[in-house]
Each structure stands twice: as C-alpha cells, then as structure tokens.
Design brief:
Length: about 280
Amino acid sequence: MLRRNWFLALVALAVPVLFGTACRPNPQPEGLTPVPTLAPAATLTLVPAIEGPPEEETVSVRQADAAAGSALYLLHCTPCHGIRGQGVDAPPMRNSQFIQTAGDQNVFDTVADGRPGTEMPAWLLDNGGPLRELEIESVVAYLDTMQGVAADASISPDAGGPGAAASMSGDIDKGRPDFGRYCAFCHGPEGVQGLPNPGSDDGSVPVVNPIDPEIANSDPGVFATNVDLYLEYGSIPEGSGPLLMMPPFGVRQILSQEQIANLIAYVLHLNGAGP
C-alpha cells in the first residue's frame, strides 16, 4: 500500500510540470523577426492565388495558339482541305468566305460538331472526335492565318529575304520548349526523328538534328539565316502530294520574330553551332 501511495504522489507532481511545460510558447532564438499578429478584432481576407478566366470569355477572346493549330491541321485536315487550304475533296480553307464572315465561334462550332449530311465529322472529344476544345481553338486560329493570302503566294525558303529574327540574339532556353510545342510534332523530339510524310519524295519530314548539310554552315550568321528562311516562308516538300509541309510561320505572323529567333538559337545549339 505504501508503495502504491508513493507512486500516485509522484504522478501527481509530474503531471502539472509536464503539461505546464507543453503549454508554454517555445522561446524565440535571438536575431529572428517576430511573427506578426493581427490587431484585436482585425479580420484576415484571403485572395485567390490564381483567378480563372471570365465566364463570358469567348473563343475569339482566348484565341489559342495558331502555331500549335498548324500541326493539328496538317495531321487531320489536309487529306480533304489540302496542305495549303486549297481544298481537295472538301471546300477550301484559304481565303474562305465562311471563315472570314462567320466568326471564330461559328467556325469552332462547325469543327466541333461537324456538318450533318456531309463528310465533315465532329472533331470535339465530347462528340466522339479526337480533339479537345483548346486544340480546336488552335485550329481555328491557324485557319485565320490562311485568310487574305495572295493566290500566288509562294511557300518556299526562296520566297524572299531573311526576317528580323535572323539578326536577333535568340534564347536557347526559350527556344527549347517552343521547339517541343511547334516543331517536335513533325521533326521529332530534339529534331531526331521525322514524321512519315506520304506523298513526298523523301517519305518523311527531314530531321534537324543533324540538319541538312545544305542548311548548316560553319558561319553561325549564315546558318541562322538559312534556318530563318524556312521558318519565315515555310517549305512544301517535293512529291506527288505530300500531306505535311513547313508552314510560313514568319510571313503569316503565326510566330513572332522573337519566337523564331529563339527557335533558330535552339536549332543551332542542337547542331553544335554557336550563337
């Protein structure tokens, strides 16, 4: 009995000591800025870190990436509408009265829902197609770049002189992700594997790593100019009916000159050339 009473007395003494220590605030080391506290009766309002787009925003307002849309157009639309939008087994997309007058939202709806009674299927994922809304918006943005184009406009690196990007200092670190977004679809990751291109004499899209010796040059300035001409004016490969081509990113303002300069810098980097 005495042993039990002694144990209970010890516990009674220890409990207030332990809990008293736990309830005391930890001492703040010297040199630290005191933690701010709210004034009495003050309230704290939290602001969302990221705000979503306005609900009333339309396709034309958040018009997506025409450069990304060019790859989607080439992959899905060229068999019927042609690589230049000239129309094959379907109406032409280049200088189309419908595209110029209907508005982006109506064009979007046509691509998303298709046209019943015709061979135009629904392309939106929710309607059984392969594309998401953002991808269709990108296609619509690319179709917009086909409007107001001269009938004899040449898509060739020989169509004119270099753009401003050829003499700009590009950023490799910015060109790398842009290459992934806009170029890797056809040229492969890091430019090492060209996509098959039925109807072209080569049978596939040229690789850019390593790039064609006729484009490469020991002079980085000449090398940059040669790459710029392709990005500026595009290129249609030789063959009976290629399904893929190099879009005229510069003259159609699909990419900015700064973006083109960054892509040039990255392509030169892939090929071991200096800026």
